[in-house]
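Dear Dr. H.,

I hope your travels went smoothly. While you were away I took the liberty of generating a structure for the chain from your last submission, since the lab meeting agenda had it listed for discussion. I wanted you to have the full record in hand beforehand rather than looking at slides cold. The sequence, exactly as received, is reproduced here:
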Amino acid sequence: MFRERAAAGRKLAEQLKRRLGDEDVVVLGLPRGGVPVAFEVARELGAPLDVIVVRKLGVPHQPELGMGAIGEDGVRILNDEVLAMAGVEENDLAVVERSERAELERRATRFRSGRPRTSLVGRSAVVVDDGIATGSTARAACQVARAHGASRVILAVPVAPRASLASLADAADEIVCLATPEPFFAVGQFYRDFSQTSDEEVVALLHRAATGAAAERVVAGAADPPVRDEEVVVHAGGIRLAGHLTVPEVCSGLVVFAHGSGSSRHSPRNRFVAAALNSAALGTLLFDLLTADEEVDRAAVFDIELLADRLDTVTQWLKGQPEATGSRIGYFGASTGAGAALWAAARPGAEIAAVVSRGGRPDLATARLADVRAPTLLVVGGRDEVVLELNRQAQGRLRCESQLAVVPGATHLFEEPGALEEVARLAVDWFLRHLTTP
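The corresponding predicted structure, in token form, is as follows:
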């Protein structure tokens, strides 16, 4: 019936757009599978996207049998019939709820990545999932939305059994469902691709939806003419490092690009991201960490201390430029350049305000990761499995603010349609948050 969750979300959005009109709407996705559906709905409606986290309460020793569900702010829904049938006592219920509530709070914190919950007070809440089976989770989600002050609750799903929808009539003000096929055994039977949605994909979609107006300037490409846009040369230990410096007329911060090859300033991917940063009033310095002769030497390419030394030299040069006075500086590292960026940022007195790694090798800076203090965003393609695992392990060693953003469907070079645009949006958002002076 549906190719995958995003396709179902687009179809669901068409129905909702006709029904909601000019209502002040917040779209709430049920993690994890409901978020890809909700993302498409929020994008079509032009509405903010948030998660609404609920957990099923499973019968002890038979967790697949739900005896209820819980949501944020102490919401609890119990199935008295199941409780009586399974003979669950209050103490047993309390143990299960305590465990599930801890997991609920962990997930809410993980998914939002430090962003506050979107206010629902006086607004219409559209609760979205990829489908409904029994309806206990959807009921809890609607209860949570009301507890948060929603003036109206709309439950929206692509597919559900008729009996479950009938049982939810009192939970929502309106229910929108595209299909109610029979027989109905499981939600997944109506999707061609019903592969599991990961936590990282949820975080990436929420982050993408939250980039806001500043990141939208990337698409518009609107920017004032730069006050400085020229080739530069930095001397580092007798080596001439070539670069390109761009400083917008109104500059909110400066980003130095680090790449472990001699083509950094000419890299079309780096230049694309740099243009996006320039459009968001951020200055950029793209330069070559290695000379043309050095980049063919694999030992030099992976000499992280050498790359970090040169990055530090270039940073000190940049700080001495008149246009950099009072500006915070961030690093954008790709591949081995990400390892060099983290190594350099970990040095005492580095004063680096933020780091973004694109398909990077932070594992090459393992010895220094615990010393990094700059907020760090690790961006990896969802299909770049080896590098993704290296980034997961590296994030576990970081002691600073950090986030792992996975771009769904992207490979190592982010060559897929829309993948590099997503990298640019993520970078813009991260640097604007951490480089802009309060």
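Two observations you may find useful: Confidence is low (pLDDT under 50) at residues 212-223. The chain has two domains: 5-194, 214-435.

With kind regards,
E. W.
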